[in-house]
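ok here's the first one, seq then struct tokens
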Amino acid sequence: MAVKERVGLVVSNKMDKTVVVAIENRSPHPKYGKIVVQTKKYKAHDQENKCNEGDRVRIRETRPLSRTKRWEVAEILTTK
């Protein structure tokens, strides 16, 4: 099975070695056709605390690291 990867924006880095990444999903409404934006937040492991708020990052699914943390930062794409 392939490893899931997502690209999103860091919205919080206040925790130690953890960042919150917001992923936007843009899809048309099934009946009306208007593009609807849904945002989901994931907690991701950031080993070196390199990520800052506003950075665009790629996250990768991993084994459970805590009760809510199942992702890790694969790379920082752009910095703010």
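and now the second one, same deal
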Amino acid sequence: MWQLIIDMKGQNKLFIAIIVSLILGVAIGGFVHLQYPDSAEPFSKNIKLLGTIFIRLVQMIIAPLVFTTLVVGIAKMSDIKMIGRVGSKAMLWFISASLVSLFIGLILVNWLEPGHVTKLPIQDAASAEELLKSSKGFSMEDFVKHVVPKSIFEAFATNEVLQIVVFSIMFGVALANLGDEYAQPVIKLFDVIAHAILKMVGYIMWFAPLGVLGAIAAVVATNGFEIFKVYAIYLRDFFFAIAVLWLVLLIVGYLILGNRLFELLRRIKSPLLIAFSTTSSEAVFPKLVEELERFGCNNRVVSFILPLGYSFNLDGSMMYMTFASIFIAQIYGIEMSIGQQITMLLVLMLTSKGIAGVPRASLVIIVATCSMFGIPPEGIALILPIDHFCDMARSMTNVLGNALATSAVSKWEGQLDNHGGDM
């Protein structure tokens, strides 16, 4: 009981520290932009290092955490039927959530038509050059290479989460079938390593407020407050669409979890805020593992489903892809039939899987899709200046979607503890 109170107090302190950092970041960034515009560029470059340090600290522990927790989770299940059952329930959730997210983006961008009423400055494609280059090589061959690891050490070194997941599942299943005499010492070792890494999470998360301050101050110093005015309509419509997606996710969550949904939201408020501030759902993965186990999700289910969710269940990113692709078409006055839009939706459904961990992956997929459907891919340059703000919302939504997916599957498996899970 006392440990729970201490945990909640620590959580609230971190949450308050992040909120204060968020406000300070906007204030400092705005001050530099207004008072010292000539110094904004070097200032942004330097203060952004705070955010870079935080993200790199988190990235440092993601690969070993995914590997150890997933292997232990599967090996402890030992029952291959249970692995298949849990996996099929998770994939059913992921596919359904992805389709719903894509449809919401498609319906709302057609209804609100931000591209028809927004007068954006037409920019050249120079700012999008890097993305255009990275999208040209997009093919099924690249997708397969991205999913299937050539070397587990290469996957670890580059933080390829999906490749680590593939290797971990195979290793965990093999371990589960070795028999207790051989498997137990290895499982125990990995279990201890996983808990040691989770302990590290607690230390790293106290660097989050500085990371938030750096990331926010940098973007406001460079773009100023004008950026909000220029893109007001696009941002308003996109955030409305995100709100609708949140409403749908929370209604489904309430139908499955009941009143415990509110307890889950209290638990994950810090991860949500960190994802929003740093634009990285990856940055909160370790903290999310910890909080879901404390919420009562079975640690075997968490360690199995959450890494999969980070590759297959990015609800915010999915919605953004249809929204942004049709928006670019509207800007250029390209009319797309319902059939073309549905085809685009299905293409996005397939091509977006397995792109987790790729920097600005959503934008790369949008460029590739635009090229496929005759929409000028250079149009991505129009939304690059505000992609940071959209990324805030979609990163936070990705975290919510994965927390709900893990909790829902735990509930369906009868593995959701009312008094918190074992750590």
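notes on #2: The CA atoms of residues 110 and 388 lie 23 Å apart. The mean pLDDT is 79.
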